[in-house]
Write a structure and sequence with these properties.
GO terms for molecular function: flavin adenine dinucleotide binding; oxidoreductase activity, acting on the CH-CH group of donors. By secondary structure, this protein is an alpha+beta fold. The chain has 3 domains: about 5-100, Orthogonal Bundle (Butyryl-Coa Dehydrogenase, subunit A, domain 1); about 135-240, Butyryl-CoA Dehydrogenase, subunit A, domain 2, CATH 2.40.110.10; about 255-405, Butyryl-CoA Dehydrogenase, subunit A, domain 3 (Up-down Bundle), CATH 1.20.140.10. The protein is built from 12 helices and 8 strands. A hairpin with an 8-residue loop joins strand 6 (about 205-210) and strand 7 (about 220-230). It starts with a helix and ends in an 11-residue tail after the last helix.
Length: about 400
């Protein structure tokens, strides 16, 4: 593994970790190239199958969900080993498992709160890419304030009848299952009376409507639930106990969030520096402009600050502690940095940088224009910047809670 990448995160590896990383690197070098070729050659209608096949290959080698316990098909990998895994993927330019929403969020939740029957039924297909999952949490009036959700679940015999709407549901248009929060006791307090439910996406009454974004992608969808019947056996952790169950899900969502962000930012900064040294058609190289050089230096410093804050939180995890509310800083500051970096990339590329993919003379095949458009949502998705500031103000600085939070 590239020692520069390891050094950039400040990791100190023992002999076992180094051997683990070498084994992983050799495996990726042997198995990834054929799958990369298959994924690139696949027609749009066949790409999903090619991605699932790669996940199945990862699962067979116990690399699909390395943090899972060994008895469930994982490797019980340490936090350091999980970091090394992501670094190795970046070094080999290999894709992670396509079903990582299920693997990273729902899987650990089922391992912690699921019944043996639920674990037996859902974990293996999730691991091998036979079932892809989406997260049904956000609603039109319950995004950052998740506890105000209104989707209802009414018990009818041995079934739960669900009616409501979810929005900004990533990957819903290709998912086989959704783990959703449903209000099952409307008379209970705001954070009580909520259940964590597993919903098949092919059930009668489920309507998925992709949302076209400014970037042209449709990675999010609206999901309408019209009297969808789900067995009570699909409730995880018991009726009305969903808020407690969800804390496990959200903890896993933030566990190593900064790492993917750091790897992506570092890669983008390297490309920006390389582009600044190039002579572009009709304009001198950007590195000759003192103002642009100053902006590049500033962006590099911001990227390093994201790394340092992430390493501070990682040190807590490695020491057996909860990273705490300071983790909100990685989300808040890091995603503003994403926007700054892509704005810089557009400016360095000149007028041609706004060309879309496939356009002649588009730098990096339109990567900067697409990245800039996608990062407009960075400060909204996964908890808005305003919510992250509230977390830091209340839980780090000790300021009073907003009145609406307990309404």
């Amino acid at each position: 593994m590239d020692s520069t990448a390891v050094d950039s995160l400040g990791l100190r590896l023992d002999d076992l970790d180094r051997a683990w990383a070498q084994e992983l690197g050799a495996w990726l070098a042997q198995h990834w190239p054929a799958h990369r070729a298959a994924i690139r050659a696949a027609a749009p209608t066949e790409r999903d199958g090619a991605l699932r096949a790669w996940q199945s290959e990862l699962a067979e080698a116990r690399y699909a969900a390395i943090g899972w316990p060994e008895e469930f098909g994982g490797r019980a990998a340490t936090t350091t080993q999980q970091l090394l895994f992501h670094l190795a993927l970046g070094e080999h330019r290999a894709m992670p498992a396509t079903g990582r929403i299920g693997l990273n969020l729902c899987g650990p939740t089922l391992i912690s709160h699921g019944t043996p029957e639920q674990q037996e039924l859902f974990l293996r297909p999730m691991l091998h890419g036979e079932h892809l999952w989406c997260q049904g949490f956000s609603e039109p009036d319950a995004g950052s304030d998740l506890a105000s959700l209104r989707t209802r679940g009414v018990v009818d015999g041995e079934e739960l009848v669900i009616t409501g709407q979810k929005i900004w549901t990533s990957g819903a248009d290709r998912a086989d299952w959704m783990f959703a929060l449903v209000r099952t006791d409307p008379a209970a307090a705001k954070r009580d009376g909520i259940s964590f439910v597993l919903v098949p996406m092919d059930a009668a009454g489920v309507d998925v409507r992709p949302i076209r974004q400014i970037s042209g992608d449709s990675g999010f969808s609206e999901v309408f639930l019209d009297e969808v019947r789900v067995p009570l056996a699909n409730v995880v952790g018991g009726l009305d106990n969903g808020w407690s169950v969800t804390r496990t899900t959200l903890a896993n969502e933030r566990a190593v969030l900064f790492l993917g962000q750091q790897v992506a930012l570092t890669s983008t900064m390297r490309k920006i520096v390389a582009q600044a040294k190039e002579d572009l058609p009709g304009r001198p190289r950007a590195a000759a402009d003192p103002a642009l050089r100053d902006r590049i230096a500033g962006a590099w410093i911001e990227t390093e600050l994201v790394r340092i804050n992430g390493m501070r939180n990682l040190a807590k995890v490695l020491d057996g502690q909860n990273p705490g509310p300071e983790g909100a800083m990685s989300k808040l500051f890091g995603q503003h940095v994403e926007q700054h970096v892509h704005e810089l990339a557009l400016d360095l590329g000149g007028g041609a940088a706004v060309l879309e993919r496939g356009a002649e003379d588009a730098p990096y095949d339109g990567k900067w224009a697409l990245g800039w458009l996608r990062t407009r949502a960075s400060t909204i998705g996964g908890g808005t910047s305003e919510i992250q500031r509230n977390i830091l103000a209340e839980r780090v600085l000790g300021m009073p809670r907003d009145p609406w939070a307990d309404a």
